[in-house]
Amino acid sequence: MFEKLVPAVRLGSIFEITPELLHRRNIKLLMLDLDNTLAPYRDSKPSGRLMEWKDGLVSSGVSLIIVSNTKSDRAKNFSADMGIPYVDRAGKPMTKKVLEVMRKMGSKPEESALAGDQIFTDVLCANRAGALSIVVRPLELTNVFFLLRYWAEYVFRRLAPGHDKEGKR
Ligand SMILES: [Mg+2]
Questions:
Q1: pTM above 0.85, yes or no
Q2: pLDDT of residue 161
Q3: Which of 6, 20, 28, 38 has its CA 20 to 30 A from that of 53?
Q4: 89 Cβ neighbours under 8 A, 6+ residues apart
Q5: Residue 53 domain flag
Q6: Residues 27, 93, 120, 45, CA torsion sign
């Protein structure tokens, strides 16, 4: 159980996910958490930097999809602005929706990655589903609840192999 909480890759932000990093690991599908991973909760539009990053990955041949637990229209609207597909109400860390996404997009678990900011939802879900788990630092820790959760996750973040203090590769 505990090993399922350890990310395979730990990064400072989503922007450190490069085509090279994914190609080296033979990843063809990158599933993306939305809140606090691609944008802070309060931002309803993708930033210019995020769009550039997305274009770089897409033109390198990686498929992208937002996989969010949100029950609102946020994932729908955000993904439309980004120009990539989405799944909401994903129920992470349950794997049902993520397994469905991989099957529909024709990507085996070992060719798929799931990147997110939370250990107990994103990382656990990715590891259970057999996909590469990538944890990024949350964009904002704006309230006490987020901060407490971050510290509860801290030991698992640090267990990710092969990274320095800044989480760089
Ligand atoms: Mg999140």
A1: yes
A2: 75
A3: 6
A4: 69, 70, 71, 97
A5: yes
A6: positive
Largest Cα–Cα distance in the chain?
A: 40
Q: What is the whole-number distance in angstroms between the Cα of residue 20 and the centre of ligand 1? A: 24
Q: Cβ(31)–Cβ(98) under 8 Å?
A: yes
pLDDT tens by residue, 47-98: 999 999 999 999 999 999 999 999 999 999 999 999 999 999 999 999 999 9
| Ligand 1 centroid to residue 37 C-alpha, Å | 5
pLDDT at 10 over 90: yes
User: What is the CATH number for 63?
Assistant: 3.40.50.1000
Q: How far is the CA of 25 from the centre of ligand 1 (A)?
A: 23
Radius of gyration of the chain (CA): 14
**Tokens representing residue 23 in the block:** 């190609």
Question: Ligand 1: distance of its center to the CA of 122 in Å?
Answer: 8
Domain hosting 100: range is 2-158
Q: Which of 102, 43, 116, 31 is nearest to 78 (CA)?
A: 43
Q: Is residue 51 part of a domain?
A: yes
